[in-house]
Amino acid sequence: MPRFDFPVDQLRAYRPEVAEPADFDEFWALTLADSRRLAEPPLLSRVDAPFGVFDVYDVSFSGFGGDRIGGWFIEPAGREDPLPAVVEFNGYGGGVSLPHERLQWPASGYAYFFMDTRGQRNARDTGGTADPHGTGASAAGFMTRGIDDPTTYYYRRVFTDAVLAVDAVRAMRGVDQRRVAVTGKSQGGGIAIAAAGLSAGLVGAMPDVPFLCHFERAVGLTASDPYQEIVRYLSVHRSAAARSFKTLSYFDGVNFAKRATAPAIFSVGMMDPVCPPSTVFAARNHWAGHAADITEYHFNEHEGGGAAQWPIQAAWLAEQLRLDGAGRVAGRSVG
To answer: CATH homologous superfamily of domain 8-334?
Structure first.
């Protein structure tokens, strides 16, 4: 795909004004308080796995409205000292997969939790967390479920689940609650940004080609799903645009980035037609904490760096934790 967004120098400085509701902070404070009042301790069930160097647990924790949310918790076997932890969120439409597919972080000495995204599961993936809340009229997919009002919007529940996942991991035996990081790719990156904006005291955030940022530009710029779900919905519900974008402003990654104080490293595919580069840079350039690092993949689309990004994240997080002498990865260009 050819480059279709702003020139590189303009992207690196792109810091747009994004609609932000006056009651954004109050909305999220009340949302989280309501669900935290209903939260119960996470439940961990040991899983027999064909590798002896990791302990694997099937987890159930309290998410939005007390709903039970699933996931995998994996840690190096035999460790007694509290470990730093990485919480990862999933891409659009996927389930939790199988634990042997998710061993990179625990193999590097971290406790690791992978959250099942409520209501999402494709035919090639495993997972089973339901979303028991109804929705009004919507397009196929998740982007317009409950979009008439921020209190009913689908991602209100997902983002609350993510914050309470961080709470749950901090409560787990063997986790150093002061050293928890969040990460995810695409939708998972957008969820990680929200979790970072709503969770205090994280040691790092690692959004990889993140989705759910700068909605109004994304919807008008890309012809790709999932943003096109919003276009299809508004092409039928023609009078709903103002109301829909008002709802989306409560869930825009740029507004969470403004409140995220943890160090961060992003990645971006500079030819990405799914999560356009300007939407990624909009969130990165508004990051409230330390100036967020970013790895630019100049000749890649939504795959970004693929497997090449994880070693960069691992070295970066090790630096944040002072685990070794790995150098900080700053403003890296690849390609």
So the answer is: Alpha/Beta hydrolase fold, catalytic domain (3.40.50.1820)
Give mean pLDDT, residues 258-262.
Answer: 96
* Spatial contact of 328 and 319, defined as CB atoms under 8 Å apart: yes
Q: How far is CA 240 from CA 135, 218, 231, 247, 319, in A?
A: 16, 18, 11, 11, 47
pLDDT digits 0-9 by tens, 38-66: 999 999 999 987 888 999 999 999 999 99
Answer for the pair 14, 278: CB distance below 8 angstroms, yes or no: yes
Q: Name beta bridge partners: 182.
A: 87, 205
| Cα 115 from Cα 90, distance rounded (Å) | 7
Positions marked catalytic: 186, 272, 302
Q: What is the pLDDT of residues 175-232, one digit of tens each?
A: 999 999 999 999 999 999 999 999 999 999 999 999 999 999 999 999 999 999 999 9
* Neighbouring residues of 134: CB distance < 8 A, sequence distance ≥ 6: none
φ, ψ dihedrals at 178, nearest 5°: -85, -10
